[in-house]
């Protein structure tokens, strides 16, 4: 194990590559295109690991992130975020050199894009498949037609198809619930596809979030899946049932700086600026910002210890520990913490260290 | 106003300097040393604004941050975080060139520090003044003595005094409550000082958080104050009563990317990776991740609009807006959002733009 002196985000390359291999295999068997979302890892290096498995297209969540991956040779990128017409300069730069797929949920956005577009792009119409964040209701054919009419006016825009994100699967408490969400949202997209396929024989249906792509197997009728978090997984996904704790590929290493045996608290360097602040509710009504694991020569041991991160300040992590656990810990130790939300933790840290000590930088 | 195309953290230099001027003036009048906490702004440039007001010492929350400010000429720095003995290499590098003040709440930490120390440092003993995070109970003279005994064994450590952080003032709902916390924690420190001053005539008492330093005026009996957040302030501080909304010196500018008038939602680019995820509870039981303001040529208009950020995904901000407000907003607009917690938002963004368009970088 590398020498750790401050909060350090460890990346188990073997677990990560196993996660990649698993979804590549599943997509191949299901006959669906895999366009992994790179917002979780935000790293050229991890992107290359996907490429080693034959993946040649990716998804990102911002124009800036598309630019970052385009500079590393990715030339077929979908920005799965409502197109922001104000970013037309960078959008045009990218559209001039790669196959750029944008995403829109309103006529206004597409109209503004049309006004400033100088190079060809494909445009997905985002569909709200039950998550109720962005996107158009599938029944709202009027709005869909209004977007299509703008696309057709433009010599530079091509209708790509329909894209949706079943983000409500993150709130699912059980595997069965995820399966139900998957079936519902997939069928909804397939119905929509049927309705428009005669006019647009090449339209694609793009779905996929980590819970449904991890748990479901049947992707017949859709064209591509876009899971992101599964490259690392995290406690939220393990709780849903998307993964086993053994699949989680990142852990924060935190130095122990103080111990209070009277209050059953262990204080570590590792706070809100390292983990970000997503939490999970515990059965007793308390919350957890992470579960403690023992670091070993080869990574971290499982199952986790009973200790969990009960609160976070900017730099402090406060860990609840039972007396028998406290007695085994001392100031100067380094403990591991499995994160609640890998995407935000990775983003907050900006870099990883593999267990072999290789530093992997992220977009900044 | 500068041209904004993606989430951008605006810094109103005039308001920020007014906040600095106000606390400098208060400290001068109170006859107390101001050692501002730089964890909020984490920027050489903003640090220099303090220096322009005659401030020559600062507080930071990590060894890395001490190093960052030392490279910009700060040569008297307190790291107000339990000393992490694993960081001895950088601690020694810093101690060799600046006046470095560390902070400890346990004998173990000081002993480990002693084992690796090569250059002189001062050591504050951290006292728990009611916040119940790190620090020693003031009544626990045994623990204090055990730390003092290690300090005395060391030719390189000097006892600096007692340091505390009344972080429970952040949970105060009223100005009166803040005043009460201030008086209690200040008196507790003064009592402790009296007990030890005969043996240590030069010991210093260091207190100070933004609510108490903003609201209270009487600092007699203590030596220095270390507020940080007040350089920018935020909605949390305005809610407590530490500041007026007019004093908040930063706002996030977010492009509007989609509007759903049926659900009264406006979607902006600006999510958890931009704001971090601290929130305030609203009277109706919902939560707010930020309050919307109208951006103007000179910054942003007050009072805020009724719109607030109701949820955050990684890149999406979802804003609740009443119908009459929605009708005034369109895709392609840029709206401002006052942050709930300035420190975490600034840390997440990594840079500011002043209203005049000057880019101010932060530690990375």
Fraction of residues in H or I helices of chain A = 25-40%
Give the count of structural domains of chain A. 2
Low-confidence stretches of chain A: none
> Which chains share the greatest interface?
A-B, 54 and 54 residues
Look at the helices and sheets of chain A and give the structural class: alpha/beta
Overall, the morphology of chain A is elongated
Describe the oligomeric state of these chains in a short phrase: homodimer
CATH superfamily of the largest domain in chain A, called what?
Alanine racemase
Q: Please name the CATH architecture of the largest domain in chain A.
A: Alpha-Beta Barrel
Summarize model confidence as the mean pLDDT of chain A.
Answer: 96
Just give the CATH class of the largest domain in chain A: Alpha Beta
Question: Could you give a quick summary of the protein structure above?
Answer:
The first copy, chain A, is an alpha/beta fold and about 375 residues long. In chain A, about 35% of the residues lie in helices and about 25% in strands. The first copy, chain A, starts with 7 loop residues before the first strand and ends with a strand.
Overview of the molecule:
- The structure is a homodimer of 364-residue chains.
- By secondary structure, chain A is of the alpha/beta class.
- The first copy, chain A, folds into two domains: 14-232, TIM Barrel, CATH 3.20.20; 245-361, Beta Barrel (Lyase, Ornithine Decarboxylase, Chain A, domain 1), CATH 2.40.37.20.
- Chain A is built from twelve helices and 21 strands.
- In chain A, the strands form four sheets. In chain A, strands 1, 10, 11, 14, 17, 18, 19, 20 and 21 form a nine-stranded mixed sheet that branches. An eight-stranded parallel sheet of chain A has the order 2-9-8-7-6-5-4-3, covered by helices on one side.
- In chain A, strand 12 (280-281) and strand 13 (287-288) form a beta hairpin.
- The longest helix of chain A has 23 residues, at 175-197.
- Chain A starts with 7 loop residues before the first strand and ends with a strand.
- The mean pLDDT of chain A is 96.
- Chains A and B meet through helix 5, strand 10 and helix 12 of A and helix 5, strand 10 and helix 12 of B.
